[in-house]
Automatic annotation (TrEMBL):
GO terms for cellular component: cytoplasm. GO terms for molecular function: ATP binding; ligase activity, forming carbon-nitrogen bonds; metal ion binding. This is ATP-grasp domain-containing protein. It comes from the Bacteria. The keyword DNA damage does not apply. Keywords: ATP-binding, Manganese, Nucleotide-binding. Residues 105-292 form the ATP-grasp domain. It holds the Pfam family RimK.
Amino acid sequence: MIPHCVGLWMYQNSGGTEIERKIVTQLKDRNIEAVTGLDLGQASAHNGSIFCNGYMMDELDLFFSYNAGQQSPFQVYLYQTLSSMIPTINNYTAFELTEDKFRTAHLLKKHGIPSSDYIVCNKNNIEQLKEHLRFWQGKAICKPVNGWGGNGIIKLESERDLDLIHPYITKQNSPQFYIERVIENDFTDYRIDIVDNKFVACYGRKAASGSWKTNVTSGGSVICREPSSEVIELALKAAKITGLEVAGVDIIYDIEHQQYVVLEVNGIPAFATPDQEQAGLNFNDTKISYLVDLIERTVCKEKASKEKTNGLEASIVDLAAIDLASASHVKEETL
């Protein structure tokens, strides 16, 4: 008998199918059944339950979502509700936080984590933005707070650049304008993978010639690199502060201030692709093992919690029955 059942929604391209197969196999070895292909974007909710592909999602012991490329607003909408009903990885609170670059940077700053200087303000308050640009010698990075893969990022070299893009920004749905100080660096970064507050692996990304973006989707390339204990410790702290169970922390070295700086904390860091594995990035098996450990521990903890709750409820019912019986006995004696 399979005591636990979890749901998965995993990307299938770039080696995702094989990664999913390994996760499912290892979960089965631990008596945990895995239902795959549960895309909340195709789900529906009614009468207090969420249904997807014939499964009642809220009866699962856990849901693991790992598909940034096909993420949709409706999928995220139901993910929030599901996360309030069963354990999810990542938990929705941390996931929602790290989807917003400003909120993530703001939280890291409040906890003393070295990160980029920023300003967020009403998109119509251009004078306030110009004031900060002057302080940064006219240079800044303009980012959408919820973008990924380097999409929508614009580098400002002067106040004039801000004047040029301002009409475009004001037409966007977002009410805010978010910019970061340009950090002098060597156009490479560190991506630290973390699962369950444990260091999994590190690799680097290098911007293409003539570019400053290290994102692979923006033309950057993956490189092998060894992290120092300082880099690993910084990444672990950043991930823990955000509350993510699975995290990819992007770090660069600030040449001007001579310190490592956290750029972003990502909730869906990619596994190594088959090509990247051939190039020397061989952390997938470790990441899968840590992830399966996390899933097993979470569902077992949830089961123990439910059993304890059910036991307490049963005890309360028994006590109520005893009190009722005692009251009836006293009433009979009185009569």
